[in-house]
Write a structure and sequence with these properties.
Strand order of the largest sheet: 14-15-16-13-12-18-19
Radius of gyration: 23 Å
Shape: globular
Helix content: 25-40%
Largest sheet: 7 strands, mixed
């Protein structure tokens, strides 16, 4: 069922469809679904109900090795890496169409697996995945090497070639879309891929692999190995025949990826890690209501389980009280936890009970640090079966507080007042992270100054979380290194070779 048809379904029809799901839970290696070599499994849980969805293959180093061998064999054969660009392009385009045509199944899988509202799947995640594969498919016959000008007796050209085997380790907050961001450029460049989905949200990865084969993709080019990070992710990062790791996840694990690279074959590593995104709202904000709505959406969308969630609201002291009042009003109208399979729901449960406890512990920390709860502040009543946390707002926040320093990864934000723009920028930069930021102002000079001086890979002016496939995604400092979504990404999944010919 395609996107348009899926969007027309009501909550009753969606629940009925979800009840009929029979997800494939084995690994996908060399064009086939296979059980874990040791026969182990782990449970994936519906965070809205606490029910077990399925038993999923629990891989280890042996399963990773089998996938790497299949990926390497496919790469060396040239069946994909040396396929005519137009033919490879046609397969990627067809793959994108198949994702769109199977929108309902993707939406249901990710919604029941990690709690994301199905409306977000149908309006953000799936269109984003389709757009990603279409974009990188388009690049296949347009990224080329170079012939340089040299002496008449010499001929020099530079080849751009695929790396080989690329390991893609993706997070649980956007299972399909984050996988697309990693897999699409790697495939477009001619690499073979091993996808390691998060153990908290593994189900949609197998559907991706199956559809790639249906689109005409050769066996061994797209592989999926399920399992725990410390077992499968580590084995993939340490494998001497993996040429690159593309990782999105926590800063702590991102650092380990770099360590594992050094301990093995010095494979390339790109990381997109944590964030503590500031939104600076100046006293001359052009439209306070709009800024407030974006601030609300920026922290409570996807339950706050977003690397660039706007978790620090740095607001001019002159408009602080008005901002807070409007924020509370809009949040109450816009975000209320509910059934993620209901198209009207804007906030689902957090991904696991563990994550719920983590976020609730940060709310307790904020209270103990002296911040004041103005909205939420706990789990919603009557929803004990699910891993829900109410949208929460703190005031009286200082940037040295833990709730302002550490990534919470949940629907919790705080307002930090400032008096001078330089102070606001200093607060924004006083963080180990530097993924994204925004500035709301009517003064173009202020906008340019903030965009220049804020230490972040992405700066939005009078908006938040806008962009398309031409905009880069990646951060400064401990938010990681490398870029997703854009043409620059292709440089991270390819390598250049100099060929110098002496003509005599």
């Amino acid at each position: 069922m395609n996107l348009e048809q899926a969007r027309a379904l009501d909550v009753k029809a969606l629940h009925k469809a979800a009840g009929k799901l029979k997800p494939e839970t084995r690994h996908f290696i060399d064009g086939k679904f296979v059980a874990a070599k040791k026969g182990k499994t782990f449970q994936t849980i519906n965070p809205a109900t606490g029910d077990v969805i399925a038993e999923v293959a629990r891989g280890d180093a042996a399963d990773v090795d089998a996938a790497v061998k299949a990926a390497r064999k496919a790469f060396k054969s040239g069946v994909w890496s040396r396929m005519a660009p137009r033919d490879r392009m046609a397969i990627v385009y067809k793959f994108a169409r198949l994702i769109e045509e199977n929108a309902l199944e993707f939406a249901l899988l990710d919604t029941v697996d990690m709690g994301k509202p199905i409306s977000e799947m149908l309006n953000i995640d799936i269109p984003g995945a389709v757009m990603t594969f279409n974009f990188f498919g388009e690049t296949i016959d347009k990224v080329s090497g170079q012939v340089t000008e040299t002496a008449p007796s010499e001929f020099h050209y530079i080849l751009r070639q695929p790396l080989g085997v690329v390991g893609c380790i993706v997070p649980w907050n956007y299972p399909l879309m984050m996988a697309s961001w990693k897999v699409a450029p790697a495939l477009a460049a001619g690499n073979s891929v091993i996808l390691k989905p998060a153990e908290q949200s593994p189900l949609s990865a197998n559907l991706m692999a199956k559809l790639f084969m249906e689109a005409g993709g050769p066996a061994g080019v797209f592989n999926v190995v399920h399992g725990l990070g410390e077992e499968v992710g580590k084995a993939l990062a340490l494998h001497n025949d993996v040429d690159k790791i593309g990782f999105t996840g926590s800063t702590e694990v991102g650092k380990l990826m770099m360590v594992y690279s050094g301990q093995s074959n010095m494979k390339r590593v790109t990381t997109e890690c944590g964030g503590k995104t500031p939104q600076i709202v100046t006293g001359d904000v052009p439209d306070l209501d709009t800024a407030v709505q974006y601030a609300v959406n920026g922290i409570y969308g996807n339950q706050g389980e977003v690397c660039n969630a706007g978790s620090r609201l740095i607001v001019d002291a002159k408009i602080h009280d008005e901002f807070v009042a409007k924020f509370i009003d809009k949040a109450k109208k816009s975000f209320n936890p509910g059934d993620p399979l209901d198209p009207s729901t804007t906030m689902g449960p957090l991904v696991t009970r563990e994550q719920q406890k983590r976020v609730l512990s940060y709310i307790d920390i904020g209270k103990k640090e002296g911040a004041k709860v103005q909205l939420g502040g706990g789990a919603p009543k009557g929803m004990d079966k699910g891993c829900y946390v109410s949208p929460t707002l703190f005031t009286g926040v200082k940037n040295e507080m833990r709730i302002a320093k550490e990534e919470i990864f949940g629907p919790v934000t705080g307002v930090i007042p400032y008096k001078k723009l330089d102070d606001a920028i200093a607060i924004a930069n006083d963080s180990i992270y530097g993924l994204a930021a925004s500035i709301w102002t009517s003064d173009v000079s202020v906008a340019h100054k903030a965009a220049r001086d804020i230490e972040a890979g992405i700066v939005w002016v009078n908006c938040f979380d806008h962009g398309d496939m031409t905009s880069i995604w990646g951060g400064f400092k401990q938010s990681g290194m490398g870029r997703d979504k854009c043409l620059e990404t292709l440089t991270t999944v390819t390598q250049t070779k100099s060929v110098w010919m002496h003509l005599g």
